[in-house]
Specification:
Helices cover 0% and strands 57% of the residues. The protein is mostly beta strands. The strands form two sheets. Strands 2, 4, 5, 6, 9, 10 and 11 form a seven-stranded mixed beta sheet that branches. It is globular and about 45 Å long. The N and C termini lie far apart (40 Å).
Length: 118
């Protein structure tokens, strides 16, 4: 089992910056991959960024070059640094973790609202 707690959401001006945090209840060394997803009103949840246990990252084209996913193994925390956010980045952001301990399992945080204002 993995519990994920997001924090850091809120109101940010377009062109500003915001950092989201996702604290995991167990060592992220035991987690195969962590990611950030988002869901805007009336839209499907979509992948924003992901990072594997080995440190490989991937990003959606819409945030590439603006957002950075990282993790702090000592704190069991993953981050999403959001630079130069745009109005269309407004959404509820969810942290995701995938474990593969013989069986693949997926876990989600409760979500944190990010609102980008002009």
């Amino acid at each position: 089992q993995v519990q994920l707690v997001e924090s850091g959401g809120g109101l940010v001006q377009a062109g500003g910056s915001l950092r989201l945090s996702c604290a995991a209840s167990r060592s992220i060394f035991t987690i195969s991959a962590m990611g950030w997803y988002r869901q805007a009103p009336g839209k499907q949840r979509e992948l924003v960024a992901a990072i594997t246990r080995g440190g490989s990252t991937n990003y959606s084209d819409s945030v590439k070059g603006r957002f950075t996913i990282s993790r702090d193994n000592a704190k069991n925390t993953a981050y999403l640094q959001m630079n130069s956010p745009k109005l269309e980045d407004t959404a509820v952001y969810y942290c995701n973790a995938v474990t593969r301990d013989g069986v693949e399992r997926e876990y989600w945080g409760q979500g944190t609202q990010v609102t980008v204002s002009s």
